[in-house]
Amino acid sequence: MTTLASGHKASLLEGDEWTKLLEYFPNYKDGITRLSPGGWVFTKPYINFADRFYNFEFRKDDVLVMTWPKCGTTWTQEIVWTMRNNPDLDHPDADVAIMDRVPFMEGDIFSPGEDSTEAEQMPVSEMFKRLCPNADPRKGMSLQLAKALLDPRTLKTHLPFSLFAPSLLEKTKVVYVARNPKDTVLSYQHHHKLFKAQSFVGSLETFVDYFLEDKLVYGPYWLHLKEAWERRDHPNLHFVFYEDLKADIMSELKRLDAFLGTGLSHDQLVNVAKHTSFGEMKSRNNLFINKDMFKNEAIVNQDVLQKDGGFFRQGKSGDWKAKLTPELIEKMDKWIRQKCDFGISFK
Ligand code: PPS
């Protein structure tokens, strides 16, 4: 057991629970750690990085986009970056991979270990080479890039508030995105089938059970939400629902404009809405530095890609109504009543 700077204790899953998890998630074979308290679940390398995330030096001009996985992070990070840097759609870096412009702070916990041959083969972006000329990319590129990025930084995380220093909101602005758990779980299942590193082999029922029992990587969605919901009146926190972004993007952009202090004109907000629409983001497909990665059978399951779509899968709210069985809806409704009893209501 390891004690982290956040005060959490981290231990690796073992015994029956670990054997069972490997049956459904065979590619998490290098180990999964769970933190106490909270029950946060991560890949094993999290333990090596945890204190660096906790002690990360935020700057006053930073904006951190925080969500549980699949709640609309990528969309929101592109919205925020575009509002702050590219409202006239003329920024030379706009075509650079989103993950380079807006680093995924804890992305390194999904990267191969620094001594592995895979680490040698990881593509190194031009931005990393430019901003981190003396850094060793095998030690993880995401965090090094997040540190080296020039102001004003927009950063992305799926970590919850409790794994950052308590001063986070005093130091920087946070945009938190919540999404209906029924759509979130479907999108996360797709993610786990699409990407080989995550590879889920099991039924939707099993995946939903893992979600409801807080056993998926990143752990309890309800607690992640609760920690943000409790802080929602803090002037440096902007709380938004994916469903509201879908329903009325212009109103949400105006709210964000006021929060970020970007002072954009109506035409600039229209630019942002158009540039970050699902259709435009899907056709640009510049999430990662290597677009061809999606054609690589070792990284992306080509059958799932063809049948169910890629990272930009549907971009809709309410897909759950067609995909979840009445039994699963009932199970999830019960979970929502029991766990999400802190005042939030989903749209
Ligand atoms: S990740 O991997 O956790 O960072 O994923 P995340 O970006 O949080 O969420 C992915 C889902 O968001 C959808 N998406 C969008 N919806 C609307 N508009 C835009 N521009 C957009 N970009 C991404 C994406 O399709 C995933 O949802 P699903 O339901 O799977 O389509």
Produce the secondary structure layout.
Blueprint: E1 2-3, E2 9-12, H1 15-24, E3 32-36, E4 41-43, H2 46-54, E5 63-67, H3 73-85, H4 98-101, H5 117-121, H6 126-131, H7 141-148, E6 154-157, H8 168-171, E7 173-178, H9 181-194, H10 204-212, H11 221-229, E8 237-241, H12 242-247, H13 249-260, H14 266-275, H15 278-284, H16 302-308, H17 320-323, H18 326-339
Parallel strand pairs: 5-6, 5-7, 7-8
Antiparallel strand pairs: 1-2, 2-3, 3-4
Helix pairs in contact: 3-13, 13-14
Bound molecules: 3'-phosphate-adenosine-5'-phosphate sulfate.
3'-phosphate-adenosine-5'-phosphate sulfate (PPS) binds at residues 67, 69-75, 183, 187, 190-191, 276-278, 281, 312-315, 319.
Q: Can you tell me about this structure?
A:
This protein is of the alpha/beta class and 347 residues long. The chain has two domains: 1-55, no CATH class; 58-103 and 149-339, P-loop containing nucleotide triphosphate hydrolases (Rossmann fold, 3-Layer(aba) Sandwich), CATH 3.40.50. Helices cover 44% and strands 10% of the residues. It is built from 18 helices and eight strands. It has helices at 15-24, 46-54, 73-85, 98-101, 117-121, 126-131, 141-148, 168-171, 181-194, 204-212, 221-229, 242-247, 249-260, 266-275, 278-284, 302-308, 320-323, 326-339; strands at residues 2-3, 9-12, 32-36, 41-43, 63-67, 154-157, 173-178, 237-241. The strands form two sheets. Strands 1-2-3-4 form a four-stranded antiparallel β-sheet, with no helix packed on it. Strands 6-5-7-8 form a four-stranded parallel β-sheet, sandwiched between helices. Helix 3 (73-85) crosses helix 13 (249-260). The N and C termini lie far apart (40 Å). The model has no long low-confidence stretch (mean pLDDT 95). Bound molecules: 3'-phosphate-adenosine-5'-phosphate sulfate. The site of 3'-phosphate-adenosine-5'-phosphate sulfate (PPS) has 21 residues, from helix 3, helix 9 and helix 15.
